[in-house]
Amino acid sequence: MQRYYDTLLDEQRGQYRVIVDKTYEDLHPRDCFDDTCFDIADMCRDIDSGNLDWFMLRVRVMYEGVELAEDYVGGMLYKDAREVLSDGTAEDMIECAMDTAKVQAQIMKQKFEQLVA
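Below the sequence we write its predicted structure tokens.
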């Protein structure tokens, strides 16, 4: 099955391209929230009517079109998905993915050096 993503952020950070996007969430909100804390029926109505955004967030770090790292988190519930760009959620994920990308770039560098040796 093909997944479609909506881009929330696409920017250059130093040598790397960072892409933050979202897609539909496979899990039903009932599987993630407790009815004793939230009115799940109201929440589902708000999601279905577009008043709340229920999604999975993905962060990718690219170099020259090659994906070096990615990070995912599901069960995101916001009034507007773009809020993840200002509340620290996306930034934390970007930081983790950037750290992984830098390690991956070093590993690839060593492998390429062996190729030409």
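The longest strand covers residues 66-78.
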